[in-house]
Amino acid sequence: CCAGLRNILQGLSFSAKYYTKHNLPQAVCPYSEIKPKKCHILHCSKSTCTHRTAPPGSILPWRFFSSEEGTEVPSKRKQKTSTVTSDLLHKNLLKSEQESWNDISPTYKALTKRIKEKLEELHNMYTLNSESPRMRFGENVYFEENGCIFLAKADDDEGNAEILFSIEDLGFSDAFIQRIRISPDQRYMAISLKSENSEEATCIIMKLGNLPVLEKVIPSVFSFEWAANDVLYYTTQKNLKCQNVFMTTFTYQKHTKLVYTEQDARFFVDLYCTKDRRFLTINSNSKTTSEVWLVDCRHPFEPPALVQARTTGVIYHIEHRRDQLYILTTYGEPAEYKAILADNYIHRIIASSGKENWQLVYALEKKTKLVDFEMFSDACIMFLKKAGHLYLNVISFVSHSVQSIKLPTWACEFELESHPEHTTSTCYFQLSSPVHPPKRFAYSFKENNLIEQAVQEVPIIANCHTTRLLAQSKDETLVPITVFHNKNSKELHRRPLLVHVYGAYGIDLNMSFKEEKLMLIEEGWILAYCHVRGGGEQGLCWHRDGCQHNKLRGLHDLRACIKLLHELGFSQPKHTALAAASAGGALAGALCNTDPELIRAMVLQAPFVNVLNTMMKTHLPLTIEEQEEWGNPLEDEKCMKYIKSYCPYQNIQPQCYPSVFITAYENDERIPLTGILQYVQKLRKAALDHASRTSKKGNWIPNIILDVQANGSHCDSSWEHSLNE
Q: How far are the Cα atoms of 584, 609, 643, 647, 691 from residue 650, in angstroms, in the given order?
């Protein structure tokens, strides 16, 4: 899962499909035939889990090794017997579900064929015409298409581009390009490659020139940034944990050393370069607290300097402009993001960067979500979300003014175009919604206005109506709902309704464009997005009000939203389906237990439905980090009882359940497959028990279907996977 503001720290995401381990330096042939591949954009996600063995955030001169003393080692015989029994049970359950899926899936063959053809038609119409993200360095523009890296001139209107190299030519097959970073002098390019079936990526460093050469391969890399022309910092990832920062050089004295390690199991480390490339930041973040160390890019071999020691509950991120640090932080009341200036940082280094010297520049209004932040030479831009609407706020450092622009009402998501130059006079971004394909906009700093780019070949959908509602929850809190339906639809109470929910980690519901959503609108469906507490749609407080001991609020919110939709004539229970993914499965599964009469069907993707059992297993990679979201049932009996009160698996009972379709992944590192297998087995038994006990006329047995994918990773967002789903 991603925390809000992760896209500030994330790099340029690209796509294609190639991967294999290969670490022999080789020259790259100018080009060979490239097979066209479908492209998709992937976003990195963070997670971490280790055992605390030393003070957090240790700065180390060299490699760091540690071990805990006095640790009791369990009996190997007991361990082996328990593991064998568990593995056998898992295999039997998996085999049973796979046989069940093979029996039932042919039933949907004709329907699947029709849907697939329609989706491919929409994909070709709306998506394939879009350009790959560009990365500009002075007069040069770099971009990726179909696994090839291209170089073009910024002022070349003819579209001429030189192919630098192909990932396939390097021997990396079945992977996609996830991130690209170019050294300041453009002599080196670092690229991360990731396969569908792994959370970990491999970083390759290419030496550019007339004949690019594969300089180095680094396995299991999460993030990386160039601190200087030939100095690369990178973090390594293992078992979803990212805690070590290394520095490697490419001069005649090539060497690699560990410069930072994080020991707190709740924290995850990544890297980011300030927009002006003055500092490289080492960011150590938990879900509620953060700490940042600075590497001076003018002196990349000096030890990192601490900006502000971690303070429980305080999150902050760093940018730099003209010898001053600009800090986005939750410090102070209310605990929402604020823009802070740490004055004269360069002249007094660490002495003036502490919280006591922070000066407020700008504070968000209540119930406002900071979606993204971008620093430029004379201004910074904030993308905000308030009451379901998107806003662009421009803070001018010249006029010391703030300009707020409300973006088009149909827009639900935005994407900032990759790495705009620090001194640019225009900021480009795209707006979209689940049923509106991305449309390009620009903000001109010179004109101080928003510019809609030339009309695209495919116009914005005209026959879709967007409605924003507020449902009153159990404690009278107003919960936003976004509804889409076809303007030409009549008798909406007879139309099928698909409700979406997430409500965890302070993350907004994904409302980017999806071909399948547009298809449903065209076929008369109603789409509803319930922005319940626990998500991030109304700021950090909205998340805090729905996590740990407040999780039930999200369930109450979801119930209120669905009831309001039905009361207002948007469909009815027998035509309503509920969709959720990952942590959203906890709320959807809970509603399925408490209010099964509200929905007819439930569709889950890699759902977190066995919450209590998972949070009791500290050997799993995410359990310790997740305690800030769900609580710690091992040490807190009240927490254990509270989780048990809503956990989907724990509360299954014989009753009339809706039909359920679940997609899971055999090698999912985040959501254990065993928990999903147990949930499906228990749910199916409860439904059958209820049917056998009742002889009511019209009684029905729901379809409870599990599709276990052998390939793919947790909630894979690729076009190919989305099409199969």
A: 16, 9, 9, 5, 20
